[in-house]
Amino acid sequence: MLLSDCAAADTMAEGMANGMESPSWQGAIAAHADVSDFAVAIDENSWRELWQRIGQPAPSPLPEGQMAVAVFLGQKRSGGYKAEIVGVQEHESNLTVSYREHRPRLGAMVTQVITSPYAVTLLPLTTLPVKFEKAD
Questions:
Q1: Angle 120-103-27 (CA atoms, 0-180°, nearest 5)?
Q2: pLDDT-based confidence at 34, cuts 50/70/90?
Q3: pLDDT (tens digit, 9 = 90+) per residue, 74-124?
Q4: Is 21 exposed, middle or buried (0-12, 13-18, 19+ CB in 10 A)?
Q5: pTM, whole model, 2 decimals?
Q6: Are 85 and 38 in contact (CB under 8 A)?
Q7: Nearest to 66 by CA among 48, 38, 43
Q8: CB neighbours of 12 closer than 8 A, spacing ≥ 6?
Q9: Residue 49's pLDDT is what?
């Protein structure tokens, strides 16, 4: 399998964030995300910068009244990894984004290619600081 084939496997899916449908994107290769990291896009410039890290043009302008949160898992030595944003909770002092890192099962057949999984979800815009938390 070619590296470009993996990039073509990036998908957009309708996601669920806190019981509300939100546009979300997941993929196996973020072109400029070698280390585990998080991002928040609250305006058009930061939205475009987020997608530059993924290595793709933004799918559309950032919708008015929306913000994006992103989880980058960093480089992995094979396929079979997946980033998933599993929940969002608003607290008095912050917005907590819960994410999960899915790993391949022991002995699973996976592509032998370096990947860098990511997940992006749109949420209603808030001025609260955003905190990312790994879910069990």
A1: 30
A2: confident
A3: 999 899 999 999 999 999 999 999 999 999 988 889 889 999 999 999 999
A4: exposed
A5: 0.83
A6: no
A7: 43
A8: 23, 24, 25, 59
A9: 96
Q: Is the dihedral of CA 27, 131, 90, 67 positive or negative?
A: negative
Find, among 83, 85, 81, 84, the residue nearest to 104 by Cα.
Answer: 81
What the block records as the tokens of 113 is 């290619």
Cα angle 114-27-3, degrees, rounded to a multiple of 5:
40
| Tokens (6 digits) for 132 | 């990312």
How far apart, in whole angstroms, are the C-alpha atoms of residue 134 and residue 98? 6
Write down the pLDDT at residue 9.
33
Helix and strand tally (H, E) in the chain? 2, 8
Residue 20 has which token pair? 């509300």
Mean pLDDT rounded to a whole number for the chain: 86
User: Using CA atoms in the order 59, 60, 63, 69, what is the torsion angle rounded to 10 degrees?
Assistant: 20
